[in-house]
TrEMBL record:
This is NAD(P)-dependent oxidoreductase. InterPro entries: 6PGD_dom2, 6PGDH_NADP-bd, HIBADH-related, HIBADH-related_NP60_sf, NAD(P)-bd_dom_sf, RedAm-like_C. Its EC number is 1.1.-.-. One of its GO terms (molecular function) is oxidoreductase activity. It comes from the Bacteria. It comes from Marinactinospora rubrisoli. Belongs to the HIBADH-related family.
Length: 291
């Protein structure tokens, strides 16, 4: 059987991770702050540890999946000495700087630290479509890749422990804004009595097709050259202004669409109306040089 793994945190996600390791043939020691969440895992072959330290000491690899950055410190700080020389893979959602802080904390205590972001829901873990992003210790990633792959695809982004989280949150931003855009459209058609289900039949293929055009925008964003002979910001302004009027007429709140209009308006006001829509990137980007 595979090497022993500790799973700290048995929320919906931690339980799914522990199951995937068990199915992969690992010995798994599980721990949760509040007892009672380990029952099914123990029936499936896991060992219930009385304390987090007990789980850690039984393992080489320690997988952490708690609520947030604070809870990770709450659980790991008292265990620093036990964790020294062991590998910690933290799959708790933390902001990039929180992941970097945890990596620095781990380094001070001689702990090998790999941070990860889970691009999946608990039922997806260990199934096709589950993707996990990692950054931090390359040694931990390489040594434990087979175990990590039991949860989903495993991609490594580099030694900066904050990178996986940065990608994770950047992808989630795209997701949230896409869902928000769908709800705006659903609110518009509601004014004509059209159901969200009916609207989704059109929205899914449309959004899917549009997503395929994303790579066409990347050259402009990466180079800063927004010259276009297709749709200009002047054109986009006319279109979005019309959508705003239509939304208002339909009694739909402008909270979702207004920021998009504001970004376009700013570029047009600054004299960039002949350039491409992607120029709105210039209105929000950090002052970091192009890649
Ligand atoms: P749950 O709310 O189901 O579980 C939270 C876990 O954190 C519980 O085990 C809870 O223990 C524990 N916890 C909270 N605070 C503390 C603390 N101070 N000390 C010790 N343990 C603590 O969340 P999930 O399992 O769904 O999510 C866990 C992590 O995975 C989160 O960071 C989440 O963002 C991330 N994630 C979740 C996804 C999902 O779809 N669910 C998707 C991608 C990432 P107790 O039972 O004692 O309260």
């Amino acid at each position: 059987s595979g090497s022993p793994i500790a799973v700290l945190g048995l929320g919906a996600m931690g339980r799914a991770l522990a199951s995937a390791f068990l199915e992969g043939g690992h010995r798994v020691a599980v721990w949760n702050r509040t007892p009672g969440k380990e029952t099914e895992l123990v029936a499936a072959g896991a060992t219930a540890a009385a304390t987090a330290g007990e789980a850690v000491r039984a393992s080489r690899l320690v997988v952490v999946c708690l609520l947030d950055h604070t809870s990770v410190h709450d659980v790991l700080d008292p265990l620093a000495a036990d964790l020294a020389g062991r590998a910690v893979v933290n799959l708790t959602s933390t902001a990039p700087n929180e992941a970097r802080e945890l990596a620095a904390w781990a380094e001070r205590h001689g702990i090998d630290y790999l941070d990860g972001g889970i691009m999946a829901t608990p039922p997806m873990i260990g199934r096709p479509g589950s993707s996990l992003l990692y950054s931090g210790s390359k040694t931990v990633f390489e040594e434990h890749t087979p175990a990590l792959k039991l949860m989903g695809t495993a991609d490594y982004f580099g030694e900066d422990a904050g990178l996986a989280s940065l990608y994770d949150f950047a992808l989630l931003s795209g997701m949230y804004l896409m869902f928000a855009g769908f709800t705006h459209g659903a609110a518009m058609v509601r004014s004509a009595g059209v159901s969200a289900a009916e609207f989704a039949e059109r929205a899914v293929p449309w959004i899917t097709a549009m997503a395929q055009t994303i790579p066409m925008a990347t050259a402009a964003i990466d180079s800063g050259d927004y010259t276009t002979d297709v749709q200009s910001l002047d054109f986009n302004k006319a279109a979005v202004d019309a959508i705003v009027r239509a939304s208002r007429d339909a009694g739909v709140g402008l909270d979702v669409i207004a920021p998009v209009k504001a970004l376009i308006d700013r570029q047009v006001a600054d004299g960039h109306g002949a350039e491409a829509f992607d120029r709105i990137f210039e209105g929000i980007r950090p002052l970091t040089p192009s890649p």
